[in-house]
Specification:
The complex is a heterotrimer of chains A (194), B (196) and C (216). Chain B is mostly helical and 196 residues long. Chain B is built from 7 helices and 6 strands, in the order H-E-E-E-E-H-E-H-H-H-E-H-H. In chain B, strands 4-1-5 form a 3-stranded antiparallel sheet. In chain B, strands 2-3 form a two-stranded antiparallel sheet. Chain C folds into 3 domains: 96 residues, Up-down Bundle (Methane Monooxygenase Hydroxylase, Chain G, domain 1); 62 residues, Methane Monooxygenase Hydroxylase, Chain G, domain 1, CATH 1.20.58; 52 residues, Ribosomal Protein L9, domain 1 (3-Layer(aba) Sandwich), CATH 3.40.5. Chain C is built from 6 helices and 5 strands; from the N terminus they run H-H-H-H-H-E-E-E-E-H-E. Classes of the chains: A mainly alpha (194), B mainly alpha (196), C mainly alpha (216). Chains in contact: A-B, A-C, B-C. Chain C: It holds the Pfam family Sld5.
Chain lengths: 194, 196, 216
């Protein structure tokens, strides 16, 4: 229906993210899943982090073998911070795939507040993309953006550059008057001297 | 689209020139133009005007709107108004750039006009940023954008439409999952691509 | 100086070359900006290609230094760009969405509402076939027998009808319904003539096809 893509690499990366799970049944010979366990069998009640694709398939079994917990960025404490001011959160550190993983994880939220947080966060943080687009720092320099926010910024920068090169080209460049540019240069020169 | 493609579209606009040669009507696919009478103003598409000017076969007639007073009024209105005001026409920036580029000497006070047009453009571009942010904050699923020109609209692609797409995708995915928790369909195949 | 040669004989066709060009230009612009492939305008393309050939023959009769020669050449180059880019854009879409397009087109052919020209359809079918063979030769033939069945349709990529597009209304259209996914409060908007909007492609797809709106 929508733009689903069987071979989407970013989707494969997202579903490879680890999520905290609690095993609900004893699983013989599955102890290797828990790095801290010494036994062969995996005991009911064990909490470990496993990749989302695995968690999902264990969760959708009847009866489910695991219950999926929310990764901490989607938990109440972080939700409060995000709802207060989403722009203060460093997604580069805390949620590379914040929105994408959030979409998958939302159904495991009993209060179903994750969805609203995702939308609200996206709307608030849009202005960060806007300002990153015009900022002179390179996109690769440390910015608290998630992977997809970075992608957005990159393509917006391409547009921005194409437009400014259009404005500059020709016999009559419609850009900042050269006086202002010179003024800035002089200022910088002065600063460097002092 | 590339800005040069928008320029290409804008170049179909009809402008006035004064040829310095005489010639019969010329029958182009996009219409017939002429006859050319040396010293008499006539209408041609912008691309043809630029070409003739480059060959020094004509002078440009300044478009009505390329007038300091008229532009000052537009600039003031643009500053005051919360909304985008109506520009002289859909491709004002392209016309300005091309005409001032090849025929600055034909336009009285060309340098000042250039500055005002650039001011107007800058005011509108910064307003465009604020409006994009406001549009996203207010829901981000629909917006009305009267009086924005094609070049201006093009400057927010793909950012704005993609951001709106993404919001929609979050809504779709979280709604589907909350309404059917028993969704046991092929999980890893239901993913949506982030970059089409 | 027989400009008459270059002039169109208007009584031959009801539609003027100017109108054909305008239609093509709009079709090109819409094709560039719409997520899905649009119904083809092959008649217009053919007509314009004929026109171009005719013009080129006449230009060749003009002396090289004749001003008209370079004006006409310039115009023809502009039109050729539109046509090439239009056809290329369609081919790109056919390649990206080949499986979906071939499946949908088969149904449309039955009802006589095909979007693709016969040659585009042939191209699409061959493209799908080549992809299938390639996957078979490079992967499927080398994996264990029980893994060799592969539902090719699963690989289909669909255009995103929910993507947002910019449009300008050519005429007033009332009552466009914007679905509200969360609040179940669908919103209705009117597109006044000349107004511009950004909204989802899906509810206005038909308006693009019947020319009531233009994508910008």
């Amino acid at each position: 229906m929508s733009s689903s893509n069987y071979l989407s690499i970013s989707d494969i990366l997202v579903t490879n993210e680890k999520v905290p799970c609690k095993f609900l049944l004893d699983l013989p010979k599955m102890g290797f899943l828990d790095p801290s366990a010494a036994e062969n069998d995996l005991k009911a009640g064990t909490n470990i982090e496993i990749p989302l694709w695995l968690a999902e398939s264990l969760y959708t079994r009847r009866p489910p073998l695991v219950s999926v917990d929310l990764p901490k960025i989607y938990k109440e404490t972080y939700r409060e911070i995000l709802n207060a001011d989403a722009c203060t959160v460093d997604m580069h550190k805390l949620g590379q795939h914040f929105y994408e993983l959030g979409c998958y994880i939302a159904k495991h939220d009993i209060k179903s507040e994750v969805s609203a947080t995702l939308l609200n966060t996206y709307r608030q943080r849009f202005k960060m993309i806007l300002s990153a687009t015009v900022s002179t720092d390179s996109i690769n320099s440390v910015q608290p953006l998630s992977a997809s926010e970075r992608e957005r910024t990159k393509s917006a920068v391409v547009t921005e550059r194409a437009l400014s090169s259009w404005l500059k080209i020709g016999d009559c460049p419609l850009t900042t008057a050269s006086m202002i540019a010179n003024h800035r240069k002089r200022k910088r020169a002065e600063m460097e001297l002092s | 689209m590339d800005p040069f493609e928008i320029e290409f579209i804008g170049e179909n606009r009809i402008v006035s020139i004064i040829p310095n040669f005489s010639h019969d009507k010329i029958f182009l696919i996009c219409g017939e133009f002429g006859p050319f009478r040396a010293g008499l103003p006539m209408n041609v598409p912008l691309w043809l005007a630029v070409m003739l000017k480059q060959k020094q076969k004509c002078r440009m007639v300044p478009p009505d709107w390329m007038d300091i007073e008229a532009l000052e009024t537009i600039k003031e209105e643009e500053k005051i108004s919360r909304f985008f005001t109506k520009m002289p026409h859909e491709h004002y920036m392209i016309e300005a750039k091309l005409i001032l580029g090849v025929a600055a000497e034909d336009i009285p006070r060309a340098a000042e006009i250039k500055t005002i047009i650039k001011d107007i453009w800058d005011i509108r571009m910064s307003k465009l940023r604020t409006s994009m942010d406001a549009l996203m904050k207010s829901g981000g699923s629909y917006g009305r954008l009267d009086h924005l020109t094609m070049m201006e609209i093009n400057s927010v692609k793909p950012l704005l439409p993609q951001a709106m797409d993404e919001l929609h995708r979050i809504k779709m995915m979280t709604r589907q999952t909350s309404s059917s928790t028993l969704n046991s369909s092929t999980f890893s195949q239901s993913g949506s691509s982030q970059n089409k | 100086m027989d400009t008459e040669d270059i002039e169109l004989s208007e009584d031959e066709e009801e539609i003027t070359a100017e109108t054909v060009l305008k239609t093509l230009q709009n079709a090109w612009q819409n094709e560039r900006l719409s997520p899905e492939i649009l119904p083809h305008h092959n008649d217009m393309v053919e007509c314009m290609l004929g026109q171009i050939q005719h013009m080129e023959r006449n230009i060749n009769k003009l002396p090289k230094t004749d001003l008209r020669s370079c004006i006409h050449k310039m115009e023809l180059n502009r039109i050729k760009y539109i046509i090439c880019n239009y056809l290329k854009t369609r081919l790109n879409k056919i390649e990206s969405y080949c499986i979906a397009i071939v499946n949908e087109e088969k149904q449309r052919i039955e009802s006589g509402t095909n979007y693709l020209t016969p040659s585009e359809f042939r191209y699409a079918q061959e493209y799908v076939l080549n992809m299938e063979n390639h996957l078979k030769n490079t992967v499927l033939d080398h994996v264990p027998g029980n893994m060799q069945t592969f539902e090719f349709n699963k690989m289909a990529i669909y255009p995103n009808y929910q993507s947002h597009v910019f449009l300008k209304a050519n005429e007033t259209v009332n009552g466009i319904v914007l679905e509200d996914l969360l609040g179940d409060q669908d919103e209705e908007i009117d597109l006044e003539e000349g107004s511009q909007h950004i909204l989802q492609y899906k509810p206005i797809a038909d308006l693009v096809k019947n020319g009531k709106v233009q994508l910008v």
